[in-house]
Amino acid sequence: MAGFFTRGIILEQRKEPALRRKLRTFFNANYAGMLFESDFPCDGAALAGEQIIEIARLARIVDERDGVLLHEKLEKARQMGIQVVVGDAIDDEPYVSSQMNPMLFLPTEAAEGLRLAAKAVGNPKIYFAVYKNLNDMDLKTKIPKDINGVEIRRIHGRYPAEIRTMDTFDKDGFAMLVGVCSLIHLYRAVYEHRLQSTCFVTVAGDCVVNPMNLEVSIGMTPTQLFERCGLAEDPGYVVIGGSMTGTVCEDPDSYPVGTMSRAVLALRDEEKKRRYQCIGCGRCVEVCPESLTPFYINRYIELGKLEELAFYDMHRCIGCGTCSYVCPAKVDIADNIKTARAEIERRRPVAKEAD
What we know:
This protein is an alpha/beta fold. It has 11 helices and 11 strands. It has helices at 49-58, 70-80, 100-105, 107-121, 165-169, 180-192, 222-229, 283-287, 294-302, 322-326, 333-347; strands at 24-26, 84-88, 125-131, 146-147, 150-155, 175-179, 198-204, 212-217, 237-240, 247-249, 263-267. Helix 9 (294-302) packs across helix 11 (333-347). The radius of gyration is 21 Å and the shape is globular.
């Protein structure tokens, strides 16, 4: 029952059939498995922790869950004495399965990548984490208890579940989350000396003929991915990222897919583009996982009183999008907060360098 009464929302996951379908590759014509020069042996067992971190730096690996360079994350974890390393395959947003699917279809790369990351930070405990509330999955995509001997822990509760992940691992010690896709790239960097030139994305939505997970060249466009998967009709809008936290893409022909894209969604419903007046129902306050008051935050943003927002702790917003999802007026509160935070940061005076 842990997490059942926490704030948030229960979402229909809509991960099938993309989750159960085999991971496919889709690379640019000039892709040739880019390599980096290194004198390190292609053998994880022969490498010291510092060498694994250096290989992650040479391979330019980025953690897809937060955009942090993997070598920086591992180095910091090593200094902090991390006790648990968790391979994050939670994917708790609708449609998105671009971490779970590679974990299931590339189990050796995922598990050995996790072991390499653990060795780099001092050999702590290791686990994979997935979201438990996947109600629309059939037996073909049943999540196993372990991946190549690494235990899988299931994260309970309402969306957004990822913010409660640490609660699951508290009893095991101080934990660090690392995206599964970056662990796969770490394995390839160690054993094949491959640069990270690809990323994993879910291509889905109610306009997509063949929803699937793809490993694609970084820099490909949504239009190219839709040509690969097929469109049943022209979408009302295209979202880069999750349906909850993603960004509406106005130009699918030129927008580049990157390491943090996670999903490219072609959706029929145009409600996300509509704008109405807030009716003051307070539903956004009831579901906010950080116990903020999005209603008041959005009101002050609309009035242009950004200096008043500190009183409402806007800095604690995690950008999960639950407020926008439940809003009956279809006000995109989450996007308004994101824009306001960027404006506040822009206005912030730059400290002068000491003479």
